[in-house]
Amino acid sequence: MAITPPSFQKDAIPTPQGWRHPKTGELLVARKISIEDIDDYNNPQSMTELIDQPSDDVIYEEDEDWDSDDVDWEEDDELEDLDLDSMTKAELIETAEDWEIEIDPKSSKAKIKEILENELYDDELIEDDAF
User: Fold this and answer.
1) DSSP state of 84
2) Buried (b) or exposed (e) across 1-38, using 16+ Cβ within 10 A?
3) pLDDT digits 0-9 by tens, 57-80
4) Residues 6 or more apart from 85 whose CB is under 8 A from it?
5) DSSP state letters, 12-79
């Protein structure tokens, strides 16, 4: 059974409890949706077929002169621009979604901020120590 989002919120996210708002997590339409239907919705078969087929156009080469200084580290710049202290709870939730960090939207603003700090900045320190 193919599922479709509600007409008033085309970017709604399917969950086992129903359709949720993509930014706030608010339950928009309460209805049971099976995990299989959610998987089918998130991973259409046509995309799976494209991914599974090898491409003859791709050429893999090893770059011996690779230098980490040549890499554009935009992600680091984005982290520096984040001011979690001045964000509202909704902005913190949206930031977590942008960085694909799972949080409970029902958590307090302080708890969400703490999770973001741990996920975004502690990982950064670990990666820096690796060089």
Assistant:
1) G
2) eeeebeeeeeebbbeeebbbebeeeeebeeeebeeeee
3) 656 566 566 665 655 555 555 666
4) 113
5) -EEETTEEE-TTT--EEEE----HHHHHHHHS-HHHHHHHHSPPSS------TT--GGGS--HHHHHH
**pTM of the entire structure?**
0.37
Tokens found for residue 100: 């694909």
The Cα–Cα gap between 86 and 41 comes to 36
- The pair of three-digit structure tokens given for residue 50, joined into one six-digit string: 């494209």
Give just the sign of the alpha carbon dihedral 78, 83, 84, 87: negative
Which two tokens mark 17? 């409890």
112 class by beta-carbon count within 10 Å (0-12 exposed, 13-18 middle, 19+ buried): buried
DSSP 8-state symbol, 107: S
Domain spans of the chain? 13-52, 71-130
Give the model confidence (pLDDT) of 32-63 as tens digits: 999 888 888 888 765 555 555 666 565 656 65
